[in-house]
Amino acid sequence: MILELAVLGLIASWGGLQHLWTVLCRRSTEFQMTVGGLFAALVLGYFMGCVPYLVLDVWRPGLARDAKVQKQWYPGARALLRCTVSLIFLFLGVMLPLIASSYPIFRWVGVRRDPPLPRADVVVLQVITCFVIEDFGNYWIHRWLHTPWLYRHIHYWHHQWSAPFSLAATDAHPLEVILLGVPTIAGPVLLSSHLFTTLVWMMLRQYEAIDIHSGYEFRWNLNCYLPFYGGTEHHDYHHYLYSGNYASIFTFCDEIYGTNLAYKQRKTAKSR
Ligand SMILES: [Zn+2]
Ligand SMILES: [Zn+2]
């Protein structure tokens, strides 16, 4: 729902955005706007995405119980505190330096901020392409992380939550955050996207991560309209059984490489 509102708001205020962007370009350096903008997009996308789910998990646990995938577990104060501390460290200690050190790459491949903003159809097409690139890269890195040594030393961190919740979306080993950051920045780098498009992509990618870790499968979730979008239950299954359904966004890769067979059997058995 937040995603739909954000897209509508963006379309409605396109003229205002053009003006704001020009003012920002005048008042800041390219480095400040690229690094500060990307970090702000990550933080805003993440925490704004978390708010409605935190309300449901903490303030009104019974309100959306029907939509909760794993109804037997809600995050308590300890889990939330542990996740928050871990996220502060990951955002400030890993992601911010990663973005700042990627700045020369962004410049080298032609990610620029120059006004005017790109056309809305260009933004939409490039963001969709970024989702496809991210999904493919993320699928193979995630499968690799499930090999015994990498799982024991790196990926175990993300799997400490067998019933995922919104705040736990990015709670992972710093090395995993860096590894999975590669397919995230691969799209804008390969497409030489405008900085504005890159910011939109980063925010939506954060929101998508929250969505699939939220633990809630609502009737208005994207996967109800787009059958090739994985969604919450698809990724929840991966956390519950620790294998299968490796893709982060779409269902293509798991379908093509046969890593969703157990999931499909389980779904069929449940629907009988
Ligand atoms: Zn995993
Ligand atoms: Zn996960």
TrEMBL record:
<feature type="transmembrane region" description="Helical">
    <location>
        <begin position="79"/>
        <end position="100"/>
    </location>
</feature>
<dbReference type="InterPro" id="IPR006694">
    <property type="entry name" value="Fatty_acid_hydroxylase"/>
</dbReference>
<dbReference type="InterPro" id="IPR050307">
    <property type="entry name" value="Sterol_Desaturase_Related"/>
</dbReference>
<keyword id="KW-1133">Transmembrane helix</keyword>
<feature type="transmembrane region" description="Helical">
    <location>
        <begin position="35"/>
        <end position="59"/>
    </location>
</feature>
<keyword id="KW-0812">Transmembrane</keyword>
<dbReference type="GO" id="GO:0005506">
    <property type="term" value="F:iron ion binding"/>
</dbReference>
<dbReference type="Pfam" id="PF04116">
    <property type="entry name" value="FA_hydroxylase"/>
</dbReference>
<keyword id="KW-0472">Membrane</keyword>
<dbReference type="GO" id="GO:0016020">
    <property type="term" value="C:membrane"/>
</dbReference>
<dbReference type="GO" id="GO:0008610">
    <property type="term" value="P:lipid biosynthetic process"/>
</dbReference>
<protein>
    <recommendedName>
        <fullName>Fatty acid hydroxylase domain-containing protein</fullName>
    </recommendedName>
</protein>
<feature type="transmembrane region" description="Helical">
    <location>
        <begin position="185"/>
        <end position="204"/>
    </location>
</feature>
<feature type="domain" description="Fatty acid hydroxylase">
    <location>
        <begin position="128"/>
        <end position="259"/>
    </location>
</feature>
<dbReference type="GO" id="GO:0016491">
    <property type="term" value="F:oxidoreductase activity"/>
</dbReference>
